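Figure-free illustration: sequence to structure, shown twice.
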Amino acid sequence: MTTLDPLDARILLALDDEPDAPAVVLARTLGISRNTVHARLQRLAREGTLEPFSRRVPPAALGFELVAFVSLQLDQAAGDAALEGLASIPEIVEMHATTGDGDVLVRVVARDTQDLYRLANAMLAIDGVVRAATSVSLAQVMPYRTRQLLERATTQPAAQAVDQGPDVPVT
């Protein structure tokens, strides 16, 4: 994945403000050529920097009001097969390999607690899943965001965006 430069960040912020804006409008807004906007958006899409449109659809709009996080312990000998089995469950919307007590942290969506119970049993039925610990989200107090990072990236490259303090040399 390519690191965004300040112009990429400006283009993405303009799209964040007007998601349906055609390249010509973005170009006019940003004071750059339409071809530059078009070429950069194509490059970002090709390199996997832009997420699929479906990421913008909240699961609640599909009837999945409940969000939970499940820490799973896996049998290390069956880890890959277990991950494939977990990925086949549509209500698992995200998975991360983690350190600590669990091996994988999954975010699941469910219609209600009964549906969550069904999902928990489905995950535990997968060969290689040993144990599950579930935490139900009561409220999303801050949604996933990257806008502030994009705003910072408009003035400095991403590699320099973190303030490392005066005693740490930047490499």
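We now fold a second protein in the same way, so the two outputs can be compared directly.
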Amino acid sequence: MVTPIIILLLLIGPLAISYLFSKTQKQPLNIRKFACWGLGLAYLFFFIGHFVKAQGMVEMLPPWVPFRLTLIYLTGVLELAIGIALFIPKLQRFAARLAVIVFVVFFPANIYAAVNGVGLGGHQWGPIYLLIRGPLQVILISWAYFLCIKPTQVQWNKT
């Protein structure tokens, strides 16, 4: 069950590193920029999973869903686009909004996979996995909203 840890490290990494750098260089920190970069890295990780572990992701969808493999690839491309956009300042808020929508829309697939014990990344554990996945989704959505979308003037200054 390493995947949630990798996701959290990717998410937090850029902000943590830039915070340490800003402290040593006595420079202000642009929280939104580095929070979006972390979310962007997480989305690039999600994109890779859609292509490297495509068959496992297909199993996370109910059999009645048509064109499951194609859908996995298309959603992977969507995650790639969101991930890249999160590195582009003019697109960051829009991409973060899309990221939140994707988290919400894709969550039923996680529920299906956990309840049926299929798929990747711990879904085989059954519904108990949702005790990890659910809070992780809340963290990701909160990160996107409070650090990437919500207007804020907060910057950590030299102190």
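Summary for the second example: The mean pLDDT is 89.
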